[in-house]
Amino acid sequence: VEAANRWPLLTEEDEAAVLDVIRHGDLSTHTVIGSLEADYRRYFGVEHALAHCNGTAALLAAYFALELQPGDEVLVPSATFWASVLPLLWVGGIPVFCESETEQLGLDPEDVERRISPRTRAIMIVHLWGMPSRLEALLDIARRHDLKVIEDDSHAQGAKWRGQWCGT
What we know:
Elements: H1 12-24, H2 31-44, H3 55-65, E1 73-77, H4 86-90, E2 94-98, H5 109-114, E3 120-126, H6 135-144, E4 148-152, E5 160-161, E6 164-165
Parallel strand pairs: 1-2, 1-3, 3-4
Antiparallel strand pairs: 5-6
């Protein structure tokens, strides 16, 4: 197997660093977590960054932050990773699946607008394969209809749409 096709090998230094965090006993407040969050804030030029154990947990936190009520609808892409939608179900929300557009692979803004109902509370934008969704059009729809926006940027860290970092 070619070296370029293999996962990087973990070193003893990597293992020691992980064990240090685990032995600390409180993963959320270990200094390495604070450093990671500070690095994200600096890199993306944002005021807040909160590390989670995985993207699913981060999305669950975002859905909780929206204070969705059972039966509230969130517009989601029909082509996405399951973790973009599962946390919505855990909080009692209803996913309304929207079509993806062919160029950027994200939500089709025209289909999103067609599927808005009186129960719609938010739009879940997922940037897949490192390709930013059409943020300008989707954010305009959200503004006009007073909808909240969640961006799942887990598959496009560092991607930009017209000069703006995805996820910010």
